[in-house]
Sequence to fold (131 residues):
Amino acid sequence: MKGNGMWFWFILVLLAGLVAFVQLAPSDPARWHQDVTADQDKDFAGGAVRVVDVDFAALDAAIRGSGAKVLAGSVAQGHITYISRTRIMGFPDYVTVQRVDGRLRIFSRLRFGKSDMGVNKRRVEGWLAQL
Fold:
């Protein structure tokens, strides 16, 4: 019985360490604040791209209103990257918005794992629905 209790605590500490790592891992702007090269809508296992005609300032307000934090850039620069976190575990996702030829390119993607189960797509479409 004592062995089972040790396994429980070992797994609990391991999970707590994983959650702490995911939430506290530093975000390097040089890695995540890149140009959005996609020029059409695209969905993939770890994120989504949308190319839209919406007001940048209004989209920025919607994104910030959802709790996302700015990693780099600004609306005035026409290029901004946010960190948005999943609700339960706080996994960081990166959302880059860039003005190109009068349209906005939105690239939302995960940092950890291979699939976000559609979270980034739903998040972006939710912001756009607010506009």
Notes: The first helix runs from residue 2 to 24. The chain has four helices and six strands. Strands lie at 42-44, 47-52, 69-74, 79-85, 92-100, 103-110. The chain has one domain: 28-130.
